[in-house]
Amino acid sequence: MSRGHYPPMLLFHTKENNAWNLYNVTENKVLDIQLEIPNIYKRFCGSSKGWVIAMDDNFGVNLINPFLRMKGRKPKQNSIIHLPSLTPPRTASGREFWRKNYERFVYKATITADPIINPDDCIVVVIYVERCRLAFIRLNKDISWTYMAEDYATIEEVAYVDRKFYAVDNHSKALCFDIASQFNLNIERISQCVGRHQKWFTKIYLMDSNNGELLLVHRYVDYHHEDIRVTKKFRVFTFDFATLQWMDKDTLGESALFLGDNSSVCVLASKISGCKPNHIYFIDDQDHIDDTRKPRDFGVYNFRNHKFSVPYNSGVKELIKCTNRYPIWVVPTIYLL
Questions:
Q1: What's the CA gap between 135 and 117, in Å, rounded?
Q2: What is the rounded distance in angstroms from the CA atom of residue 75 to the CA atom of residue 66?
Q3: What Cα–Cα distance (Å) separates residue 17 from each residue in 13, 30, 323?
Q4: Buried b (16+ CB within 10 A) or exposed e, 315-326
Q5: Which CA distances in Å does 41 have to 13, 63, 116, 134, 156?
Q6: Quick check: 248 and 228 in contact, CB under 8 A?
Q7: Is 282 exposed, middle or buried (0-12, 13-18, 19+ CB in 10 A)?
Q8: Using the 8-state DSSP alphabet, how is residue 101 labeled?
Q9: Spatial distance between the Cα atoms of 172 and 178, rounded to a whole number of angstroms
Q10: Number of other residues whose CB lies within 10 A of the CB of residue 298
Q11: CA 283, 104, 102 angle in degrees (round to 5)?
Q12: DSSP characters for 293-333?
């Protein structure tokens, strides 16, 4: 494995208190290192540029670099960056409820640049629970969060592609916006809705294809019992900027997708040992239907013949099934010995 082409790796919780392991799915290998992340961070609401994002019990947003927190070594300076708190809910009952469930107050978060290497270009964007609205803060520039107007609500996904932000709502209608300053947003609605499956619940992902394409993925899932969710199918779209329409893709070509709880990554399979082109590697994610459900829905989907396989290490699968801490895809940005 070369230094420059790490695959997305699965960061999963172990049976130890604050210890997390890394699993390389494409090589079916658990790395011989452990990462320490304080237990106050119960759920990761995003993963980007080698960092994960989590809430604390004061509605604060925190950027955590797990690779700077290896067990047995002193955590590096700024391995956790504490951002200002988001505005809590307006009502006393709302504040009480979300203080008890703070880990879910932000549904999804992303960053535009490494906050240590390039803080002046780092913008943090979150989707928070109040009608799934967007808020953002610019490192080294803003001291508080800016909240987008209530006109832009029920947002399910946000991605940063070619120096612009794109978001989709619960009907897969797309928004495009850039952030010129703290109070100057240029927002444009750029597409109509995409139909969802009539029978199965639809989970939405939005991502950069790494060659300028904006990809939208629909993941269709069914619930067999109260606590068992099963993925049935994937559908992938690319955005046509000429016609402003979502267009079905019948192949991923040489690309592979990694999808899961608040993290979606597109890679060129030929650059990663053992990675299969035209496949989707997926893990479970929280979907607002049952937030107490343990993560069990994971596998690999062949986009050509629509068949599923579950090649993951049996020990890793059992550890994931035993925990209520959802794993997340992370892409290492430093050399792992």
A1: 23
A2: 9
A3: 9, 18, 11
A4: ebbebbeeeebb
A5: 12, 11, 20, 21, 22
A6: no
A7: buried
A8: T
A9: 19
A10: 22
A11: 140
A12: PPP---EEEETTTTEEE--S-HHHHHHHHH-SS--EEE---
Burial class (CB in 10 A: 0-12, 13-18, 19+), 196: middle
Number of H helices, E strands in the chain: 2, 25
d(CA 330, CA 258): 10
**Other C-beta atoms lying within 10 Å of the C-beta of residue 243:** 9
For residues 54 and 44, is the Cβ–Cβ distance under 8 A? yes
- The H or E element spanning position 98 is helix 92-100
255 contacts 322 by C-beta, under 8 angstroms: no
Per-residue pLDDT of the chain (337 residues; tens, 9 = 90+): 444 568 899 999 987 888 999 999 999 999 999 999 999 999 999 999 999 999 999 999 999 999 999 988 888 889 999 999 999 998 999 999 999 999 999 999 999 999 999 999 999 999 998 778 899 999 999 999 999 877 777 898 999 988 889 999 888 888 898 886 655 567 787 777 777 666 788 889 999 997 888 999 999 998 877 667 889 999 999 999 899 899 999 999 999 999 997 789 999 999 999 999 999 999 988 765 556 667 778 899 999 999 999 888 888 888 887 777 889 999 988 756 5
Cα–chain-centroid distance for residue 267?
15
Residue 81 backbone phi and psi in degrees, to 5:
-115, 120
